[in-house]
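Human: I would love a firmer grasp of how sequence relates to backbone shape in proteins. Could you go through the record with me and say what the backbone is doing? Here is the record:
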Amino acid sequence: MKKVAVIVGTYNSGSSALAELVVNLGFTVPPPDFQGHHEPAGLRTLLVNRWPEPSLLEKMGGQDTAARVKAWVETCKRNYGDIVLKHPLIPLMGREMMDACFGPSRKYLVISRRPKYSDAGLAKRKWFQDSDEMQKKLRRAIRDAFFKQVLEESEVYTLSYEEMCNAPSLIAAEVADFLEVKRNPKAGWHIRPWAAPK
């Protein structure tokens, strides 16, 4: 059964670095990759059409979105084998829709970063107006999907950006074990040590 690694995190949470780590373990980001963020453009389009950035106000058509995402995921698994999926809007789907769309072989990697730094970094990039409110909505969605119930350890791996940066080799080994793939000593070499901005 083809594996699906689903990375869940807000904007500027370290999810791109984590996705690259997973790619280094043998997974594929279904092309095309949106702006080099290790983010499938096809998935991004489906999610943004349902929850437009930056308001994230949900449009009608939930069942249609779920069916489209599920069909897209199945096509990607057939074409690319083990895949890694990432986009900040994924948690807005809710856990039930995520489980249904990503299939029985999915595993979630939930990454967090201190809001103080995550939000400041996003605001500095000037991608969106009112990005702080958008980030708050995403954190609530992540909490509701993953932290309001007992986590199934075989399905969910949680980590922080700071942990990943300060011990990339350890995190790479843990992620490989979680995804049940062969360890790669070089999987986390692209990750720089983290220090709080001055």
Observations:
- The chain has eight helices and four strands.
- The first helix runs from residue 15 to 23.
- The mean pLDDT is 91.
- Strands lie at 4-8, 83-86, 106-112, 156-160.
